[in-house]
């Protein structure tokens, strides 16, 4: 044993040495490979970065220079057009030939035009044109396009308002302008373009100046030839997406080493320019250098790694030869130890399996073909109360309930003979206390033991608790059904086809059926039978499906006796796991009596409104009837107080007549207020609207109450500035403001203060406020003062206090103007009353100035009545 232990120790020590050698070999190879890759990749990325930066800088500089050249040329053309237009505008245009000659001599940049034409109108409908400049091209730079003014061109100039807009415009679709090839090598395609500039003198048009050019004139062929890097150059109009110019050296639309795009404004439009560059040969070679270095570095790295690996393999072969013999000896010795270990593991595994089986709550058993018990798990003691050792060898079927023994034994024999598959059965087994316990008996498989004897494996599952739970569930279901059947409201389940699945007695009672069975038998479809409006019911169910559930839905249903009643439903949709509708379930309540009561209340409200209107009309009629005799009283009293027909003889009679006149005027005012309120309440009041200055109304009120203000020594402060114009009925607004003014003076003590101020809300509404330092009002007094005939107590003055219609009338007048009356008051401090006018009725003075008409003079033309006249003596006339 000592020798064996020694050999095993020696082998175990040698194995780590072998592993150490392999680890050292692998680490060396990895370090060589890693260092080589790092150096190679570093050199590759550094060179590749610098070479690409060099290429990008060269491409960028070339495209930048080209773009600057084009922008410079476009700027020159635009300046030339504006300069020529200014010369024509400020020069004597009587001798047009001399003017054209001066322009050709003195205006720089004319070489960038193919031709320049001035079109003008000599008299209404008669047009002429003058050729300002026309280039003499050689064969290589010949212009295939020649602008010839015609009736069609003049019509277009008039219709599209070229003569009215003095903006420099770019046109690429004049008649005859085509996109054509101008050069073969390099291949150049170009389209003529026209620049138009209106020539004006003051507000009148002196015609339009048209300059025709091409992109070829902007770039120059020798400039294109010098740009050897440039493979393609494309200029495209942004608005129409049409090409203006296209140069292609490669004849290959799909390849370019670098592309640069710009967009710049040209006249009233914009051009999009695209530069495509080829690679230079020296740049192409430089771009390949990093890849050559990468390849060379990878080859050196792989060669070094293979060299290190080969050396380590040779060392390992020698070591393995020495270790092979030692390993063989160890294997022979360890085989004996392995058998011992397997035997102990088998014992331990059997113990573990036994522990697992014993931990299962079900009883696992094994019986012979005669039914004698050969094996039992630990759960047997827990279920039956019998000790396992005491039960071993007993017959399982004799322990079952006597009435179940014969049937269970018969099924077991069929299983042993192969005539029956594994099965389950509910039965009862005897326990140690003499009772029987409900179990589920399962016979699952047949096997052979080590002696080739047949054994049947099965389980016993204790279902006593489950049986109790099922009985409890049945009791709960019974209670639930009792609750449903005795519920006051109707409960139901309804299929999507309209067939009732179930209902409670209350549901049948609501619909007029004797019982639920009769209702389920007679109602084949709810739509049409119970719910008379089929389409409405289908729409409602679609809403239920969409919302999931709906509460408080009121509708009409038809009872069995064809009587229509009102019901309130709560309903929800029930779906399966796949989202398919199974049925609808809901509740129903008869609300017919509540509906009838609601209808009665509605009719009572209508009658009340009619009575209120009759009262208003009565007051209005009475006011009219009272005014007739009152006018006579006021008229005759005025004649008497003024002694128109002669002296009365007594001064006391004059005072009496004056009192009659004053009282009559006051009574007439009260009657007029009552009449106005009555008209407003009856809806018969129509505003006589006009636009008036609010400041005039305020000044008039100040003049009216100036004596009272002076008498009570009240300080009147007017802080309102720039009062606007108001659209409304001036008399009504004055009436409301007078009432507010009167209240402020009446409730303000001697020596008090009244302030008038104004401001605007954020929505443009105008607020005119009158604030006093009077006795003030509480919240309850404000409500009382705002009600008809309501008055707040006035401790200062009760004489002539009125009948309480002032604020009510003010509020009604403001509502008619779609405004409002606001009152802010504090007891003992004072009151602020505000008239709020809506934005649509307010006109500020600055707004009126901003809206002053400023109609510019414009040249008008009838484009459909252009007269074309050709004078043979003047070749330039059209």
Estimate the strand proportion: 15-25%
Secondary structure tally, helices? 21
Q: Which segments are poorly predicted (pLDDT under 50) over 5 or more consecutive residues?
A: 1-16, 795-804, 848-878
Number of domains: 5
Output mean pLDDT. Answer: 78
The helical percent reads 40-55%
Q: How are strands sequenced across the largest beta sheet?
A: 4-5-9-8-11-10
| Assembly type | single chain
CATH class of the largest domain, anyone? Alpha Beta
- Which geometry do the CA atoms define? flat
Q: What is the strand tally?
A: 29
Short description, anyone?
This protein is 48% helix and 23% strand. The protein has 878 residues and is α+β, with helices and mostly antiparallel strands.
Label this structure with key terms.
878 residues; Beta-Lactamase; six-stranded antiparallel sheet; 29 strands; flat; disordered N terminus
Please explain how this structure is put together.
This protein is of the alpha+beta class and 878 residues long. The chain has five domains: 109-280, Beta-Lactamase (2-Layer Sandwich); 363-469, PAS domain (Beta-Lactamase, 2-Layer Sandwich), CATH 3.30.450; 487-590, PAS domain (Beta-Lactamase); 598-664, no CATH class; 686-850, Histidine kinase-like ATPase, C-terminal domain (Heat Shock Protein 90, 2-Layer Sandwich), CATH 3.30.565. It is built from 21 helices and 29 strands. The chain has a six-stranded antiparallel sheet, covered by helices on one side. It has a five-stranded antiparallel sheet with strand order 2-1-7-6-3. A hairpin with a 3-residue loop joins β27 (820-826) and β28 (830-837). α18 (730-746) runs antiparallel to α20.
């Amino acid at each position: 044993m000592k020798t064996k232990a020694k050999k095993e120790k020696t082998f175990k020590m040698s194995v780590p040495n072998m592993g150490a050698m392999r680890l050292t070999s692998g680490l060396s190879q990895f370090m060589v490979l890693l260092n080589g890759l790092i150096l190679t990749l570093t050199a590759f990325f550094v060179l590749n970065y610098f070479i690409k930066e060099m290429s990008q800088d060269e491409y960028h500089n070339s495209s930048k220079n080209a773009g600057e050249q084009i922008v410079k040329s476009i700027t020159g053309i635009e300046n030339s057009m504006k300069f020529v237009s200014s010369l024509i505008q400020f020069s004597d245009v009587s001798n047009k030939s001399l003017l054209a000659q001066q322009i050709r001599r003195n205006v720089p940049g004319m070489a960038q035009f193919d031709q320049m034409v001035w079109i003008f109108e000599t008299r209404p409908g008669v047009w002429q044109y003058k050729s300002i400049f026309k280039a003499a091209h050689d064969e290589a730079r010949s212009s295939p396009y020649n602008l010839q003014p015609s009736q069609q061109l003049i019509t277009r100039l008039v219709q599209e308002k070229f003569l009215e807009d003095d903006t420099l415009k770019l046109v690429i679709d004049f008649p005859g302008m085509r996109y054509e090839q101008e050069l073969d090598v390099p291949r150049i395609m170009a389209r003529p373009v026209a620049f138009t500039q209106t020539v004006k003198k003051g507000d009148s048009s002196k015609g339009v100046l048209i300059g025709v050019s091409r992109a070829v004139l902007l770039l120059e062929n020798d400039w294109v030839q010098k740009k050897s890097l440039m493979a393609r150059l494309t200029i495209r109009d942004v608005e129409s997406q049409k090409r203006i110019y296209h140069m292609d050296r490669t004849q290959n639309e799909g390849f370019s080493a670098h592309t640069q795009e710009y967009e710049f404004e040209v006249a009233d439009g914009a051009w999009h320019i695209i530069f495509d560059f080829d690679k230079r040969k020296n740049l192409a070679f430089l771009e390949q250098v990093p890849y050559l270095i990468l390849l060379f570095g990878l080859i050196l790295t792989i060669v070094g790694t293979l060299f290190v690996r080969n050396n380590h393999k040779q060392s390992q072969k020698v070591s393995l030869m020495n270790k092979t013999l030692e390993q063989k000896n160890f294997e022979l010795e360890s085989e004996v130890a392995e058998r011992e270990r397997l035997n102990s593991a088998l014992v331990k595994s059997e113990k573990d399996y036994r522990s697992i089986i014993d931990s299962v709550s079900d009883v696992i058993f094994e019986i012979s073909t005669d039914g004698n018990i050969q094996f039992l798990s630990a759960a047997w003691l827990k279920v039956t109360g019998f000790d396992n050792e005491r039960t071993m060898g007993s017959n399982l079927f004799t322990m079952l309930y006597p009435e179940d023994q014969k049937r269970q034994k018969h099924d077991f024999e069929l299983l042993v003979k192969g005539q029956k598959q594994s099965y389950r059965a509910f039965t009862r087994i005897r326990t140690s206390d003499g009772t029987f316990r409900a179990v589920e008996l399962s016979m699952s498989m047949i096997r052979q033991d080590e002696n080739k004897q047949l054994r049947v494996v099965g389980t016993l599952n204790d279902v006593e608790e489950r049986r109790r739970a099922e009985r409890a569930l049945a009791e709960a279901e019974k209670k639930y059904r009792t609750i449903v059947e005795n519920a006051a409201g109707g409960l139901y389940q309804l299929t999507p086809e309209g067939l009732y699945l179930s209902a409670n007695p209350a549901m049948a009672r609501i619909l007029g059926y004797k019982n639920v069975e009769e209702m389920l038998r007679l109602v084949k479809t709810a739509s049409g039978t119970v719910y008379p409006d089929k389409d409405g019911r289908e729409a409602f169910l679609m809403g239920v499906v969409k919302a999931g559930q709906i509460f408080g839905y009121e509708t009409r249903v038809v009872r069995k006796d064809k009587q229509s009643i009102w019901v309130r439903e709560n309903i929800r949709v029930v779906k399966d796991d796949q989202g398919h509708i199974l049925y609808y379930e809901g509740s129903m309540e008869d609300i017919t009596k509540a509906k009838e009561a609601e209808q009665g209340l509605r009719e009572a409200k209508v009658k009340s409104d009619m009575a209120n209107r009759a009262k208003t009309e009565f007051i209005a009629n009475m006011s009219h009837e009272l005014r007739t005799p009152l006018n006579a009283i006021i008229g005759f009293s005025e004649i008497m107080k003024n002694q128109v027909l002669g002296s009365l003889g007594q001064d006391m009679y004059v005072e009496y007549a004056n009192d009659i006149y004053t009282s009559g005027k006051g009574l007439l005012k009260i009657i007029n207020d009552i009449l106005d309120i009555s008209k407003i309440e009856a809806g018969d009041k129509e505003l006589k609207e006009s636009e008036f200055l609010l400041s005039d109304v305020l000044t008039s009120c100040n003049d009216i109450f100036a004596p009272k203000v002076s008498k009570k020594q009240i300080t009147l402060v007017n802080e309102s500035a720039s009062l606007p114009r108001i659209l409304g009925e001036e008399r009504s607004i004055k009436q409301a403001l007078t009432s507010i003014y009167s209240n402020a003076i009446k409730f303000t003590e001697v020596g008090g203060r009244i302030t008038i101020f104004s401001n605007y809300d954020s929505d443009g509404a105008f607020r005119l406020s009158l604030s006093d330092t009077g006795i003030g009002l509480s919240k309850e007094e404000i409500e009382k003062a705002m009600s008809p005939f309501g008055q707040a107590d006035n401790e200062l003055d009760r004489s002539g206090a009125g009948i309480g219609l002032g604020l009510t009338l003010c509020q009604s007048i403001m509502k008619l103007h779609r405004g409002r009356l606001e009152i802010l008051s504090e007891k003992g401090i004072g009151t602020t009353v505000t008239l709020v006018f809506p934005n649509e009725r307010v006109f500020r003075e600055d707004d009126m100035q901003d809206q002053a008409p400023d109609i510019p003079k414009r040249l008008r033309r009838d484009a459909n009545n252009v007269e074309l006249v050709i004078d043979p003596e003047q070749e330039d006339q059209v």
